[in-house]
Amino acid sequence: MTKLDRNWSGIIIASDKNGRNKVRFCESLTRREKLLSQQGFTIHDVIMFRDPANKVDGLRYAVDCEFKHPDSKNLVLKTLAKYASSAKRELILKEIASRPKRNTDLSTEQVMNIVGNL
Description:
- The mean pLDDT is 87.
- By secondary structure, this protein is of the alpha+beta class.
- The N and C termini lie far apart (52 Å).
- It has one domain.
- The protein has a three-stranded antiparallel sheet, sandwiched between helices.
- The chain is rod-shaped.
């Protein structure tokens, strides 16, 4: 199981004291919202997924939602691009790893044919 396979119940878009906006993935939205508020974050948007979803599917769902903060949709799109490329890379690596290994050893007969042709 990779980091991208884990399921989340929603996201919170919040900014820290320095004004940096970030997408936070949550298993429990109410608990995470309370924790972020206590830590001094400004919460802009809270999006609950219909069903628990991985990061890529959750962000695809969130793109179609209504946002209160004007920068939220762009932030979600950028985060989706980041995780989608990571997911694609992981799929390619899994595909390569699952391929059967080629036998590159030459038999004695093949070696003799090559040597004989020299």
